[in-house]
């Protein structure tokens, strides 16, 4: 019996190790294949949008760096849900990764409200300096309180005002127009300040809303508009850069912490490399999409420096309304401005 007991014990321990390993992987990723972790990443933008391309690049880098140990399946075009739905799924752990535009993330932290302030970022160099510096680090830490690990910030771009009604050359031209916005209170206040009627509409419903006249226009980047075929229901654009929207790719924090340290390092390294690659792609794509708009026959108004200042000054009231505790936190706004080496006055008086 003793001679039989030891082999039986060894076999039992072996099978328990295999079973527990499989159980852990299954709990982590839903995969039943030993030694391979399969994770899902979802977001709502078109598959060929630069944000989508950045997430695909991230997945490619993770697989490469892990020698196929970690596979990330990417789902675009809202196949799993809109921004809010996929973010909530990631928070619950139903999926591992989700991406959303930051205006739709303000319910998780007021810090994104500051990012939405009109003209707080005036070029992409300022955006990257803030995201890569202290303002970005503060957001990363804050998101962990909501159960997210920030992987990287895909470059989304500057929003322009587009419509299918008339040419827009000055703020007063927007009087009475119904303009689709995100759920961002700041963006809604922007259009109120500009004289329009802000109308929040889910991204998946915007094309139909424009087609049916529920809204007259929207604010978005050239690349997203073109890649989503919105040029088919638009006729005019005003290039006023009223808002910069970043995207954010997050991972469920509990799932991240269940990974081995070397796997966590692979995830974060891949995120950094994907972000650097995606920034170049996003900038090139937006320039290309602008030309596609022009070639399609859409009229694009580009203001002079003097006219551009008028657009900025029309939205200064939004800062007065929202830079306060509980909204765009004053200390955090100051952190951004200090990081960029400028002041509110320099934005609206120059």
Automatic annotation (TrEMBL):
GO terms for biological process: transmembrane transport. The keyword Phosphoprotein does not apply. It comes from Oceanobacillus sojae. The keyword Signal applies. This is C4-dicarboxylate ABC transporter. Belongs to the bacterial solute-binding protein 7 family. Transmembrane segments: none annotated. InterPro entries: DctP_fam, TRAP_DctP, TRAP_DctP_sf.
């Amino acid at each position: 019996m003793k001679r039989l007991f030891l082999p039986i014990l060894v076999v039992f321990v072996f099978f328990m190790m295999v079973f527990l390993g499989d159980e852990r992987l299954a709990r982590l990723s839903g995969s039943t294949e030993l030694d391979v972790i399969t994770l899902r990443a979802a977001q709502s933008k078109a598959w060929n949008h630069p944000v989508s391309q950045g997430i695909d690049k991230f997945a490619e880098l993770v697989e490469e760096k892990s020698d196929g140990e970690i596979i990330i399946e990417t789902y675009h075009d809202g196949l799993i849900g809109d921004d809010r739905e996929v973010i909530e799924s990631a928070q619950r752990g139903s999926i591992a990764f989700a991406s959303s535009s930051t205006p739709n993330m303000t319910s998780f932290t007021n810090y994104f409200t500051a990012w939405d302030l009109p003209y707080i970022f005036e070029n992409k160099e300022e955006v990257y300096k803030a995201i890569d510096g202290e303002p970005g680090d503060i957001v990363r830490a804050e998101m962990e309180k909501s159960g997210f690990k920030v992987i990287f910030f895909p470059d989304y771009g500057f929003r322009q005002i587009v419509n299918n009604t008339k040419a827009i050359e000055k703020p007063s031209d927007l009087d009475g127009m119904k303009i689709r916005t995100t759920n961002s209170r700041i963006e809604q206040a922007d259009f109120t300040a500009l004289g329009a009627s802000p109308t929040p509409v889910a991204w998946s419903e915007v094309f139909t809303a424009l087609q049916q006249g529920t809204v007259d226009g929207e604010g978005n980047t050239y690349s997203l508009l073109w890649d989503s075929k919105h040029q088919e229901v638009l006729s005019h654009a005003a290039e006023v850069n009223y808002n910069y929207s970043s995207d954010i790719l997050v991972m469920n924090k509990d799932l991240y912490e269940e990974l081995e340290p070397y796997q966590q390092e692979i995830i974060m390294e891949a995120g950094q490399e994907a972000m650097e690659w995606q920034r170049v792609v996003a900038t090139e794509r937006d320039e290309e999409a602008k030309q596609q708009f022009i070639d399609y026959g859409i009229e694009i108004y580009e203001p002079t420096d003097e006219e551009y200042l008028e657009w900025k000054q029309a939205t200064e009231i939004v800062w007065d309304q929202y830079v306060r505790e509980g909204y765009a936190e004053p200390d955090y706004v100051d952190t951004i401005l200090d990081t960029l080496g400028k002041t509110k006055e320099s934005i609206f008086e120059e």
